[in-house]
């Protein structure tokens, strides 16, 4: 393997939204052996970069599900924004069912209705971590809002002239999300993915993780057969299908495990570190 691509939430990050020391050490060990590492995430660049730098990892980042690719130095080298017409299509269909959207633009993350945002995000946390209390879920949502620098505005029309890379919706009503997905899934130039059972993420069709990772690998002269990718949810499928060594997290959904040749430990058990360690050992065995 010449390149490792890892998702963040549910993969490299644990339940405390942190990169463990064990995971960071294995990434650094791989880098020392000449293997490249890239983070591939639905998060915006600033958020992903901060989390990685906290443990001393500076690397290229493919963010917003593949909409933007940044070098380790923070230079934007590829982007795929949503078409204005497609943004309006998603907005109009979402408003029909009173579904709340979050906008990821060239200048930041924007939303309306702060209290609703916190409630719906807290509900998402409760679904993925049913053992936590409602109060802790709300606190987690508030901390997420602060860390992601979500800006709340009265009228979303204020930012529609900006370049928009991703739209995101959270909802505890899975029927509404399912209906929204079914009505929009055949729209041209629109990619719909999900990083949890309670959200939908909308990007340009060329902003999928798999497309962005393939482009990144090609720029390095690396064949996809020499890439290991690690993920846990539906928005990771496009890259897992393309690489030579797809790895599912122990906490991954069944659809992800089904397409991976290997399942590692969970994100709270340093699964990324185990996957990298196994890959390095396998490489040593093959090389004698």
TrEMBL record:
A Pfam family hit: Hydrolase_3
GO molecular function: magnesium ion binding; phosphatase activity
Secretion signal span: none
InterPro entries in alphabetical order: Cof (IPR000150), HAD-like_sf (IPR036412), HAD-SF_hydro_IIB (IPR006379), HAD_sf (IPR023214)
GO cellular component, one term: cytosol
Entry-linked NCBIfam families: Cof-subfamily, HAD-SF-IIB
UniProt protein name: Cof subfamily of IIB subfamily of haloacid dehalogenase superfamily/HAD-superfamily hydrolase, subfamily IIB
